[in-house]
Amino acid sequence: MQRTSVFNKTVSQRLDKLSSAQIQRVFSNLAAEHDLLLSIIDSVPTGIVIVDKNFRLLFANKGFKRRLPISTRIEEIRDGGKRLYEYIADFEIKSFLRNCHENNLSNVSGEFSVRSGDDTVRFMTISLSPLVSAEKLSGSVILVRDITEKRNQEILLRQMENLSSLTNLAAGVAHEIKNPLGAISIHIQLLQKAVRAARQGDGVLPDEKFVEKYLDVVNEEIDNLNEIVVNFLFAVRPVKANLELANPNALLEKILEFFTPEFEGKKIQVKTEFCENEVRVLLDPKLFREVVVNIAQNSIAAIEEKANSGIVCDEKNSDSKEFCGVFAVRTATKNDKFFILINDDGIGMSQKTLEHIFEPYYTTKASGTGLGMTTVYKIIKEFSGDIRVKSHEGEGTAFIITLPIPQTQTRLLPYNASGGEGKK
After folding, report:
1. What is the C-alpha to C-alpha distance for residues 125 and 143, in angstroms, rounded to an integer?
2. Which one of 68, 228, 295, 385 is least enclosed by Cβ atoms within 10 Å?
3. Tally of CA atoms within 13 A in the half-sphere of 115 that contains its CB
4. Which residue in 246, 34, 68 sits closest to 143, CA to CA?
């Protein structure tokens, strides 16, 4: 490229001395080089877009057309006179580019999820860098990269890590199956013994109540075995998370709005305090709802148990004596992490329960399967997050969920017109 630039400069200085044939040959070479450069740029999988200082389109390669959802053809965008982001169909991407233009932002990057027509989600990073010509800022270079495969590899890695926990789970299931099998074996042996004694004696079988008694036990234990197997399959099934970038505050608000009447019907006050930062994290909205619902149902049970036990709740947490308990949800951001604190002032948990709360089949409820909190744990791990629990008997329980915020700031060296790259 440097040699071509020198050659072009030399030709321009001697243009008046060249013959028509020489000029034609020079322009043919330039056209061929131009076509080669365009072919190279179009072959790059990364979307490359160049806009002027008013954010109007100057150039876009084929990668851009494939990567971004635009509402019209590239030719119409170039000739339409509007700013590039006005043609972007995705609201989040449009807002990001508009913000970059209106606030003169460069050297920045954002990560976005785009849902296609077949309902699949693809992940993109969009980076802006300054376009400098003759040591003056003349626009921006926008790079659009598809990182879907990278995200899918991360999901696959987490699933493989989850498989390592199946050994302990299988050992627990083997122990659960052993007791029903033992009971079935004993009662079948008793039936066989009774039938054998009848054949050796008068041939009269035991009365129906005797037979039914043992058969009922056998059928009951078979049902128990079936339930254990079904629960085991539920516990080991992989979580199919359709991850996308979503606003967790907005999702929480919608979920709690739906459940507040149920809480208030049980005289439980709902309190919320959401952070002002508008962030987006990688999660599956449906599975996220399942997490909140599981924790909320446990809180309802804990508050009702405390109320029925006669323990008086802390009036400092409640705005009215009409309520028997409080369910509170708060959010915060810190160090590229999004925190969700869900707490109640219910009966609380013992140290033993705390140690086993996320283990399959562990439950303190008479009708519980012991898989609710296991599911919550698996889902949060699918979101690359973490979940912790704090609880004190008679005082309440707090769940702290941590979700990573995708890095949106690309740390690049700013352009220095006097000397190229400079320190930030």
Report:
1. 8
2. 228
3. 9
4. 68
Non-local (6+) Cβ contacts of 385 within 8 A are 401, 402, 403, 404
User: Tokens representing 48?
Assistant: 């490359």
pLDDT tens per residue across all 424 residues of the chain: 444 555 555 566 666 676 777 777 777 777 777 777 777 777 777 888 888 989 998 888 887 777 777 767 766 777 767 888 888 888 888 889 999 999 888 888 888 888 776 667 888 889 999 988 878 888 999 999 888 888 777 766 765 665 555 555 666 677 677 778 887 888 788 877 877 777 676 666 666 566 777 777 788 888 878 777 776 766 666 677 888 899 999 999 999 998 888 898 889 999 999 998 888 999 999 999 999 999 999 999 999 988 887 665 554 455 555 778 999 999 999 988 999 999 999 999 888 888 778 776 556 554 555 567 888 888 998 898 999 999 998 899 999 999 999 865 434 434 444 444 443 3
User: How far does CA 210 lie from the centroid of its chain?
Assistant: 57
What is the pairing mode between strands 244-246 and 281-283? antiparallel
With beta carbons less than 8 A apart as the criterion, state whether 416 and 422 touch: yes
- DSSP per residue, 210-263: HHHHHHHHHHHHHHHHHHHHHHHHHHHSPP----EEE-HHHHHHHHHHHHHHHH
Give CA–CA dist 58/77, Å, rounded.
9
Three-state secondary-structure class, residue 196? helix
Handedness of CA 253, 256, 260, 263 (dihedral sign): negative
Strand pairing partners for 129?
A: 141
- In whole angstroms, what is the distance from residue 413 CA to residue 164 CA? 43
Residue 409, phi-psi category: left (phi > 0), alpha (psi -120 to 50), beta (remainder) = beta
Nearest Cα neighbor of 248 from 374, 339, 335 is 339
| Pairing assessment for the beta strands 57-60 and 281-283 based on DSSP bridges | unpaired
- How far, in Å, CA of 322 to CA of 315, rounded? 11
What's the pTM?
Answer: 0.58
Of the CA atoms within 13 Å of residue 14, those in its CB half-sphere come to 12
Q: In the 3-class helix/strand/coil scheme, how is 30-69 assigned residue by residue?
A: HHHHHHHHHHHHHHCCCEEEEEECCCCEEEECHHHHHHCC
Length of the chain (residues): 424
Q: Which among 45, 90, 94, 65 has a CA at the least distance from the CA of 244? A: 90
